[in-house]
Amino acid sequence: MTLAGIQHSLFETDVDAGPTVHPLAGAVRRRHLSDGAWVDLRPGWLTGTTGLFGELTDQVPWRAERRRMYDATLPVPRLTAHYPAGAQLPLPLLRTLRDRLSDHYRAELPEGFVSAGLCLYRDGRDSVAWHGDRIGRGADHDTLVAIISLGSPRVLALRPRDGGRSLRFTLGSGDLLVMGGSCQRTWDHAVPKSPGAGPRLSIQFRPPGVR
Ligand SMILES: O=C(O)CCC(=O)C(=O)O
Ligand SMILES: [Fe+2]
């Protein structure tokens, strides 16, 4: 086989085989934080994500977000798309992922995951500042927010809301991180800028009434 032939077939394996969704049971590791907050990690939940990353970057109707800060409306340095409960998701695979997560977390989250948020960090200059997902129920109830990372590795940082050291989780393509318990109200999270980083996108699944 020629070198070109080998390279072609490697490329095809990665792109055309499509993503594989691996089991959650027995593979999710929980880390308890303070104040009843926790984080679950399942590295490599999906493999073969190159094509999926490309399809989502190309097909999702990305919007530039603006956020009200004090008395100004400032652009948020990332692109987003939001699919509320009942909306058609951009790819059938996303439904599969949402349903797998709902099944896995059924005992802790009987209502399941219903909405999807997508964020595109075009390069290392895109980011999201410290915040909790506290619009709605997350403000005063325990809840779960599941994040799947695709594309270039980026840090998702967490820190206690009342001060303290931050934790940094580097998420690679196909990794799953779930924030649970009191995490949205007692801890904040952020995706810090990362000079030189390539594009990354995240898919977040949330229960009813959580934003
Ligand atoms: O992109 C991420 O991993 C985090 C996104 C996030 O925290 C949010 O959109 O609320
Ligand atoms: Fe968030």
Automatic annotation (TrEMBL):
Q: What Pfam family is a match, any one?
A: 2OG-FeII_Oxy_2
Q: Which InterPro entries match?
A: AlkB-like, AlkB-like_sf, ALKBH3, Oxoglu/Fe-dep_dioxygenase_dom
Record's Gene3D superfamilies? Alpha-ketoglutarate-dependent dioxygenase AlkB-like (2.60.120.590)
GO biological process entries: DNA alkylation repair
Q: SUPFAM superfamilies attached here?
A: Clavaminate synthase-like
Per the database record, which ranges form the Fe2OG dioxygenase domain?
Answer: 112-209
A Gene Ontology molecular function term of the record: dioxygenase activity
**PANTHER family xrefs:** ALPHA-KETOGLUTARATE-DEPENDENT DIOXYGENASE ALKB HOMOLOG 3
Protein name according to UniProt? Fe2OG dioxygenase domain-containing protein
